[in-house]
Amino acid sequence: xxxxxxxxxxxxxxxxxxxxxxxxxxxxxxxxxxxxxxxxxxxxxxxxxxxxxxxxxxxxxxxxxxxxxxxxxxxxxxxxxxxxxxxxxxxxxxxxxxxxxxxxxxxxxxxxxxxxxx
Length: 118
Fold this sequence. Notes:
The chain is mainly alpha-helical.
């Protein structure tokens, strides 16, 4: 299992730096090379939890989504599904609150959201 906050956060940093898909990382696939090891639901949960604890709710939700996918595939569960859902729910709540704050504060925010979100 993964451990250590610096290691976990370096994985998230690497994800952004090299524009790596969380699903590929969770499958042990880096830039098209399959390294044959997969992350467990608990590993993905820990990446999400550390992102959450660091205030990075976007990555938290990405990794919690991976944790749910892994959880569904596991015969022996490595994490509680309710724990994953709780972190996802609160991260989504924080992101929505931030978006609403920005929409109220910035006169051009509404237009920008339509442009960037689609």
